[in-house]
Amino acid sequence: MKIGIIGAGFIGSALATRLTSLGHSVAIANSRGPETLGEVAEKTGATPVTALEAARYGEIIVVTIPLKNIPDLPKDLFEGVPADVPVIDTSNYYPLLRDGHLSELEHGELTESEWVQQHLGRPVVKVFNNIMAEHLEKSGKPAGTPGRIALPVAGDDPTAKQKVMALVDELGFDAVDNGSLHESWRQQPGTPSYGADLPAGELAQQLESLGTTRTEQQHAQFLANHAALEKQMQAQGVKLQ
Predict the structure, then answer these.
(1) pLDDT at 240
(2) Which residues, in sequence order, are CB contacts of 220 under 8 Å at separation 6+?
């Protein structure tokens, strides 16, 4: 396939490396222009392009940039892109380390990827947000391997979701349907499955145990869990892209 990636950070580069190794043609973009992507191109085998070119390049598009930068993307980013091209969102909300506080995500029912979808003006499928980039690049296993890591996939378009789930499987991970985009809160930071690298059965059980409608108590608890994680990362000097 031809796959466009907007974002050349940890996740974008890991995906580009794996996808090119599988024989896919990958175009990758960042916010600073293709002329700054020489090292990324050499490492991943992807072709440096602009964000607009990446959005128009592929049969699947991946948006993997810091959440706070989503509103800065070109307003016509997906103009003319066929409706059947799935758009993957990998973003996570890190208010302390990177994004600042967004009241829309801390109060009310809006999920992170619903917020992204609103700004993009385009339906998205959420995946690749709850696994470390290094594991995404190096921990994929053939289907049927015991303990194979599973990744949750959330979205509202069944056809787009199936295309994305097939790609997840090809990358070496079991894809677990996490319901609608409104239910994608179950794979956001602070939840039990975030960064846990669970096998499919355990991940499905974990997601189901949370229910389908996030309660105020759950929202508060997951925000608190994530805040504690951010403080720990800050103390360790962890940098985010």
Answers:
(1) 86
(2) none
According to DSSP, the β-strands at 2-6 and 150-153 are unpaired
119-146 pLDDT, tens digit per residue, is 999 999 999 999 999 999 999 999 999 9
What band does 239 get if pLDDT is binned at 50, 70 and 90? confident
DSSP-derived letter for residue 145 is: -
Helical H runs in 89-157?
Answer: 103-106, 112-120, 133-138
Are the beta carbons of 3 and 25 closer than 8 angstroms? yes
Give the global pTM.
Answer: 0.96
In the chain, what is the straight-line distance between the N-terminal and C-terminal CA atoms, in Å? 27
The helix/strand/coil state of 12 is: helix
Supply 94's token pair. Answer: 């890190």
Report how far residue 90's alpha carbon sits from residue 126's, in angstroms, rounded to the nearest whole number.
Answer: 6
Q: 132: number of CA atoms within 13 Å, CB side? A: 8
Residue 135 has which token pair?
């594991």
- The edge-to-edge listing of strands for the beta sheet with 60-63 is 47-48, 25-29, 2-6, 60-63, 87-89, 125-126
Q: Which whole number is the average pLDDT over 40-60? A: 95
Q: Which amino acid is at 160?
A: A
- How does strand 47-48 pair with strand 25-29? parallel
